[in-house]
Amino acid sequence: MKKRYNSILSLLEKCRTMAELKQLQGLMITTSVIRDVIPLSRLVDFCANSESGNLSYANSVFERINRPSLYIWNSMIKGYSNSESPDEALNMYSEMRQKGYSPDHFTFPFVLKACSLVNGYNLGQCVHNCIVKTGFEVDAYAATALLQMYAASGDMHAALKVFDEIPKWNVVAWTSLIAGYISNDRPIEAVTVYKDMELWSVVPNEITMVNVLVACARSRDINTGKWVHDRIRQMGLDPFSLNLNFNVILATAIVDMYAKCGRLRTARNLFNKMPQRNLVAWNSIIGAYNQYGQANEALGLLSDMRAAGLEPDKATFLSLIGACAHLGALVSGQALHAYVSKGNLAKDTAIGTALLDMYAKSGDAERALEVFSELQKKDLTTWTSLIIGLAMHGHGEKALTFFKKMQEETMLIPDKITYIGVLSACSHVGKVEDGENHFISMKSVHGIEPTTQHYGCMVDLLSRAGWLREAESLVEKMPVEPNSAIWSALLNGCKIYQNVDVADRVRRRVRELEVDGSGVYVLLSNIYAGACKWEEVKMARQLMKERRIQKSLGHSSVEMKMLAP
Asked: Of all helices (H) and strands (E), which one includes residue 326?
């Protein structure tokens, strides 16, 4: 009997498929080994937690067990916490407690993970109380899971308190705290925690380094990022120096850090050295090229990516469509639109908004409106993109109509970017009174403090309408220093209405403030030339020369070929 028992245990260890498992289960029933807790526990664990397992089958076996062991309860809770139904893990935990079982340090991590996944913050606090009552708060395994739960719930104060109470800080606890700050959009604090970890002489692992690199990327901290990369080299973990055991995740994090910090040449060189590249690596380099204004490079990588056997995902398309918008590459944008329409991505709000923005920036307002109307779900970014796109291309009345429609038909609250589009629309159609009302309500109704861009829109509105004294007065009252765009808006009004007096005053302010940007000086020169004030023309050009400001050259581009679908 013992020989058969050991044989079945050995077969359970070697089991790889559910078909094999069911055969073993039949053998266990006929030999009565099924009554023994150890082989029964392993059978349930395989069904609940192996890659080829079946959680529903595990549950059917579990329901037939009269008195499940704590190990079996934990296996089921773990299985559900890793499934698409984490709430079932919490139900299982509740049932276990009701039946008089006491959880152990293996139970808590999976219950807390389920709490994180279902936003069960209150239940997580109850589990915390249970951990304290049962004395497991000193257990590093349970305490780290508790830290992760609080971090996932956004309560970093509680997470840090749990961390401080862990008797011995191991690398898992430190890494969990770093990851918690990153997930709560506090990357600078994540970097600080890592530096503290080094001071405590805790040796980081590859997971730690991936998280720190993510923090450096998000905070655009290239100096710390380079230091972390050097530290990885010192530890002998640099994937670009190893011939074997290439860690694609760590390599991707290094590339992403350099890319997001603007070191595109370094990022691309490292990217080219990668013996294997996952989708995240491709998206990282494509997104960085788009972010730093090298849209042609971003678009060029699509064919390379597909040649490598990878299909673009949502993140890829967002970057590529953004690149088309930046270039005004309408044909390539249309090709991408056709590509995403083959699947369900075109219905995605973020993709639809990107397409709308691309069409609007490429001057195809009609197609932008079509994309907008086809979207079932529209968020604030969608509405804002349409309003700005319409305003930008001379459809100010339509832009204002859609803003009104957004306010009347949705619960969305406009933000500062929305108001830039609204004020720009008012400027393009000369609606001074409406613009002033929106400028006032922006702060009084929605509590949005005007930025330089909002003031720029208002100065442009007043100047275009010929209200130059009011525009000048607004510039004087601004709580922030006017930039070259604001001076250019005011001077543009002076040029339209041939107002040399206001232009003179602007020239004096420009001289005092040492304003950069060739547009201001060119406008001044043109205004004086129009009034035949040649000495002043000479002064404006001399001032530009003294400050070594080059005249911005106009340029145009021609799209040569369609992006291959």
From this structure: helix 314-327
